[in-house]
Automatic annotation (TrEMBL):
This is Helix-turn-helix transcriptional regulator. CDD domains: HTH_ARSR. Gene3D superfamilies: Winged helix-like DNA-binding domain superfamily/Winged helix DNA-binding domain. Residues 13-111 form the HTH hxlR-type domain. It comes from the Bacteria. Keywords: DNA-binding, Transcription, Transcription regulation.
């Protein structure tokens, strides 16, 4: 998997590059939903109330091009397509976990005990994690 380059020479730092990949309201929520399990397009729409079909399709294509999401088309009738996270997408989710913890503590006002997951987290526990 190569490095994602959308704006060659325009990145100032790693955060700038990462924000380009996850920019927008829906991409981090798509990552969150796919962290739970692989999903079909309709399942993702139901998991993310308010996202339009056009935006979801566009974001999934971009995330696939960025190496975050894998699209698996099954040769069945009717056709079935599932989306899942690639190892790069999983690593991005891991990198976003501290940001989620910050938001829970500083914005939502809740903080689970260290090493525990709060009710609103909906994240898979990672073996060997902090």
């Amino acid at each position: 998997m190569g490095t994602t380059v959308r704006r060659p020479g325009a990145y100032i730092c790693g955060i700038d590059a990462a924000m380009d990949v996850i920019g927008g309201k829906w991409k981090v929520l798509i990552l969150w939903a796919l962290n739970e399990r692989p999903c079909r397009f309709g399942e993702l729409r139901r998991e993310l109330p308010g996202v339009t079909e056009k935006v979801l399709a566009s974001h999934l294509r971009e995330m696939e091009a960025d190496g975050l999401v894998h699209r698996e088309a099954y040769d069945e009738v009717p056709p079935r397509v599932e989306y899942s996270l690639t190892p790069r997408g999983v690593s991005l989710n891991e990198a976003l976990e501290p940001l989620g913890a910050w938001g829970r503590t500083n914005i939502l006002g809740s903080s689970p005990a260290p090493g525990q997951v709060g009710e609103d987290d909906h994240v898979a526990l990672i073996a060997g994690g902090p």
